[in-house]
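FW: tagging you since you asked about this chain on Friday. Here's the raw sequence from the shared folder, copied in full. Didn't touch anything.
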Amino acid sequence: MNTIVLQRPADAEVNAQLQPQIGPTKTIFPDGFPWVEKPKTYHHSIDVYLKDSNATGNIYFARYFEWQGICRERWFFECVAADMLQDLGVFITKEAQQNYVHETFAFQTVKCEVNTFAIKQCSFSLLFRFYVNGTLVSTGYQQIVFANKQKKIARLPDDVLDKIRAYQASEEQLLGLR
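HL: got it, structure written out here
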């Protein structure tokens, strides 16, 4: 049985009698329990054109890396900080990977889902899942490091880390990477 750990004390107090507590404020509930909050997932659609494909109509593999960047920037702009933290520093992509699962063609709509994982004080990773008509066609990830204006690794502000954590991938989403 999959479980999700709630960390909100109010929920733990309300439901303390339903299941045993683990630690002082964490209670475990099964998936689907009415008060369990699911992690947010960012969604972005990409229209695919002939310019994205080769002579046979297959989409160039490199486009998925380009789309990772587009979805990453849009997620950060819409969900974390519209100013991209430009006054504090820069984001550096330390690592990126893309796994091709199924071929795609021109004039299809590719839907991307973005979640976060491996969140640390100075870095986090983004999980990308690309679908066409509900079929998984590609997965990938990027490890992002934050650096100050002097290009030295720096801690992300707490409010930014909280926004990033809101999109933290579930265990099932991470298993899709393998």
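FW: The chain has two domains: 1-37, 39-175.
HL: agreed, and The radius of gyration is 19 Å.
FW: great, closing this out.
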